[in-house]
Write a structure and sequence with these properties.
Chain lengths: ~60, ~550
């Protein structure tokens, strides 16, 4: 697959990302906080809402 | 832009045109666009006709742009030459109908399924099957593709808000996803303009393995396995299970990994359009940018004949499903030549080849590369490296990883199994486009998603066309002179000028003519459509 230069560049060595990747939250308190926020906005009756989300096929 | 002199290769022997349509090779630049069919629902009214509700989205937004008069917004016609009052293509004019009425299309007011409109940002908003669909204007960089694609999310969200404020209409909710989890799928399509001489066999040879494996960074994540989602579990892609064949023309049945539709909406002697139908709709900026950017780079390598070592999966459809069903990224893909590689290893091969390709055309100094190509290759390398090192660390950049983290949070906190309705709801509501309800949007508001363009850039693209293609001319005409346009399509505008006995057709067959640089001066000097047309003819 290496192209015409025959050089092997290992892509698994990350270059400086063009867009900074925000730190990923791993601590439990932060996750609980996030889930609590989401609980407050989730559709009320999960089963009924999911059942009612029926789409016709498209492309 | 890359200086042509440094980057341009010898003319391709294949057909006498440059290998890369319109742009130098070794870049991500290309004429391209995205289409999204949105999921639509009227909560509490599951039996309402989705063609009707989709049409309400389109017509309500059209009225918002152009006012009430039908001929002011019903602009888009697939075949303007056929539909627009016998316009004579050779002379670009034709007799006015006896009653003088402009009837741009054969579309009846009462058929909600055919509502469609071209917007002042150069995009098209219409009803396709039973979904509102937004097609971006033609753009030339992955960043522009991202901006105008995500502007479409704002446009349909605005439309839903306007529908909700209209007496007599049911409130509607829109979703940027690709399946209802019950067996129906609706598409997100990418369109890439290629040099006509690119052998289709080369596309099949090199793009199949790429499209099967790019889901590791383009996937939006899905709860449930199989088309109807009945088998419990989580998979990488919304779309993968709906693909059943390797190459073909269809888009709604037996969907193919490589679609053969070729309708360039431009000079067909010079260009072909590659219609990529396998992608997921993505709300994350990085996923959207990379989806378009890496695919454009692959096509540039294919056009130039750069890829020497084809990585051809022995069973592409099976491999597509297996990769999607393997969120730990360890699944081996058997190649025809006997090699066994993971999806990440295939992507590293493509990425490595692309790096060498860019170096070959743009030189060894990365700092001298054009910024669009550099952004894409840097991000491509970074996410492949990140996924190889620690998948969960990519939650900010990759949609399926972020969605999975949320789902695992619920599973951990509430002890839910994969078939619990709450997880299906989280999957669904991830794609809800309401800013205060959609989970992907909420995560972005919390600063948990990486971004590369600003909210302002996306908001501006709701009303402004991209400057770098013919979409600028189209959008400016629609913004400035809507009352003077009888019909419009991707490759022409038909003007109806007061006092003129005939319609005036302006062909826009070359995607890179009609850019802001080409025609801004004409608009500045024209107070009316008639003056604009006179200036065009000078």
């Amino acid at each position: 697959m290496a192209g015409q230069t025959g050089r092997r560049i290992t892509p698994s060595v990350p270059a400086a990302p063009a867009a900074a990747a925000p730190a990923v939250t791993t601590d439990t308190a932060a996750i609980d906080d996030l889930l609590a926020e989401i609980d407050a906005v989730l559709e009320e009756n999960a089963e009924e809402f999911v059942k009612g989300f029926i789409q016709k096929g498209g492309q | 832009m890359v200086p042509m002199a440094r980057a341009h290769p010898p003319v391709s022997p294949r057909d006498g045109t440059a290998p890369s349509a319109l742009f130098p090779p070794g870049t991500v630049l290309r004429v391209m666009g995205l289409e999204t069919e949105y999921g639509i629902t009227a909560p509490g009214h599951p039996r309402v006709n989705p063609m009707l509700t989709s049409s309400q989205i389109v017509t309500t937004y059209a009225r918002h742009c152009y006012g009430d008069q039908r001929t002011r917004w019903d602009y888009e016609v697939e075949s303007p030459l056929r539909d627009a009052r016998n316009v004579d293509a050779a002379t670009a004019d034709s007799p006015r109908q006896p009653d003088g009425r402009v009837d741009a299309t054969a579309v009846g007011d009462t058929d909600p399924g055919l509502a469609n409109v071209l917007l002042p940002n150069g995009a098209r908003l219409y009803v396709d099957h039973a979904h509102p669909e937004y097609a971006t204007p033609e753009v030339t960089t992955p960043r522009e593709a991202l901006i105008w694609d995500h502007a479409g999310d704002l446009i349909v969200t605005d439309a839903a808000r306007l529908v909700a404020a209209t007496p007599g209409l049911l409130p509607l909710q829109l979703y940027k996803n690709n399946t209802d989890g019950k067996g129906a799928s609706y598409g997100t399509h990418e369109n890439y303009l290629l040099a006509r001489g690119t052998p289709f066999a080369d596309i099949v040879t090199h793009l199949t393995g790429f499209l099967i494996t790019r889901q590791v960074f383009t996937g939006a994540g899905r709860v449930g396995l199989g088309q109807d989602g009945r088998r419990p579990g989580f998979q990488i892609s919304q779309r993968a299970d709906f693909f059943e064949t390797e190459v073909g023309l269809e888009t709604t049945l037996r969907r193919p990994i490589i679609n053969t539709r070729d309708e360039p909406h431009a000079d067909a002697e010079r260009y072909r359009r590659l219609h990529v139908i396998i992608g997921d709709a993505t709300l994350g900026q990085i996923a959207t940018l990379l989806k378009v950017g890496t695919t454009s780079l692959m096509l540039s390598m294919i056009e130039a004949g750069w890829l020497r070592d084809p990585l051809i999966p022995a069973q592409p459809v099976r491999a597509l499903h297996e990769v999607s069903h393997d969120p730990v990224l360890r699944q081996l893909i058997a190649l025809r030549d006997g090699r066994q590689l993971t999806a990440l290893e295939l992507q590293e091969h493509y990425c490595t080849a692309a790096l060498a390709f860019i170096e070959h055309h743009q030189g060894p100094q990365e700092s001298a590369w054009d910024p669009d190509t550099r952004e894409v290759i840097d991000l491509w390398r970074a996410v492949l490296g990140g996924l190889a090192h620690d998948i969960s660390g990519e939650a900010s950049r990759i949609d399926w990883v972020a969605k999975q983290a949320l789902l695992e949070g619920y599973r951990g906190r509430d002890g839910l199994s994969w078939d619990h309705p709450t997880l299906a709801l989280v999957d669904l509501q991830w794609a809800d486009l309401r800013a205060d309800r959609g989970l992907a949007l909420l995560l972005a508001q919390r600063g948990a998603r990486a971004r590369c363009v600003s909210d302002d850039e996306i908001a501006r693209a709701v009303t402004e066309p991209p400057a770098t293609t013919r979409a600028w001319f189209r959008g400016m005409c629609l913004a400035r002179f809507p009352e003077s346009i009888a019909a419009a399509s991707w490759d022409s505008l038909i003007f109806d000028l007061p006092g003129e006995p005939s319609l005036q057709r302006v062909a826009t067959l070359e995607p890179l003519r009609g850019t802001r640089a080409h025609v801004a001066g004409l608009f500045e000097g024209s107070a009316t459509a008639a003056q604009l047309l006179a200036a065009l003819r000078r």
